[in-house]
Amino acid sequence: MSAVKPVDNKPGEVTLFAFEKHEGIPTASGFCQKIECYLRFAGVEYAQQDTLPFKAPKKKLPYVDIDGIIIPDSQFIVRYIKEKGLADLDKSAGLTRLQVVEGVAYRGYWEEAIYPAIVRSRWFDKENEAVVAREVFGDLPFFIRIPLHWWFRRSLTNSLVAQGVGRHSDAEAEVILRKALESLEIRLTPTGTTTEWFHKTATPADIDAVISAMLINICGTNSNPFCKKIVLQSKVLCGYTKRAVEGFFPEFETLLKEIKEAEGKYGPVLEVL
Ligand SMILES: N[C@@H](CCC(=O)N[C@@H](CS)C(=O)NCC(=O)O)C(=O)O
C-alpha cells in the first residue's frame, strides 16, 4: 500500500504516527485526536511516534502501524481496528443500524465540511495564524520553523480553496461554524440533567470519537477564538468535552482548567457522570 516502512510491533500493538504533542496539551490535529479518542474510548493501548505529513503515505496524518500493516486515513484506521477485532465502539455501545448510519452522516458533515471551516478560521486570519504557528512550531529552531510554517500555510490554503470553504468570506465561514455548533448543541442536549453520549448510550460510539476530538481540538488551542467561545459558553458542549477529557485525557490539565474557569464565568456545565 505504501513505501512507509513498518515498525517492529508485537502482535496487536498499535503505533500511531501523528504530529508531535506538547506535554499536557492536545494535538493540533483533529484527525490525530480522533484516533486517540477511538483508541482510549475502546481501551486499546497504543504508542505514539511523532512525524510530519510529508512522510505519511497519503501526505496527511494520522496513519497507524498494526502488526506491520500501515494504514493511513482515520476512516480506514477505524475500519481496520474493527476488522482486526481490536475494538468496535458502535457494536459495544449496542447501536441500532439507524444509529450507525446517522453516525456516518454526522461524521461526514463534521470531517468534510466543518473541520475545514475550523482550519480556515485558524489560517486565514492573521492574528489566529500567528497563534497557531506559535503553538505548533514555536519550539523549533527558526531555520526549521520558517520553512515548515510556509509549507503548511501554502498546503492548507490551497486545499481549503480547492475544498470550497477557502472561497467564503470570514463572515460566511462564521455562519457555517455557528450553525454547526448550535445544531450539535441541540443534538447533544440530554433529556435529563446529565451529560450523555451522542446516541445516549452507556458507552461512547464511533461518532463520539469524532465529536469529542473536534471539541477537544477547538478548545485545545487559542487559534480559533470564535468557535472556542461558543463551546465554552455552552453548558451542553462544554459538559460533553469535560466528560471526554476527565474520563480519557486527564493529562490535558490546561484544557480542564479552562473548562472550570468557563463554568465559573458562564455557570456549571451539565453534570458529568
Ligand atoms: N481524511 C483524512 C484527513 C487527515 C488530515 O486532514 N490531516 C491533516 C491534519 S488534521 C493533515 O495531515 N494535513 C496536512 C496537509 O494537508 O498538508 C483522515 O481522516 O485521516
UniProtKB/TrEMBL annotation:
Cross-referenced Pfam families: GST_N_4 (PF17172)
Cellular component annotations (GO), alphabetically ordered: cytoplasm
The organism's place on the tree of life at top rank: Eukaryota
Annotated ranges, domain Thioredoxin-like fold: 31-128
Similarity comment: family membership: Belongs to the FAX family.
Protein name in the entry: Thioredoxin-like fold domain-containing protein
Organism of origin: Arthrobotrys flagrans (Nematode-trapping fungus)
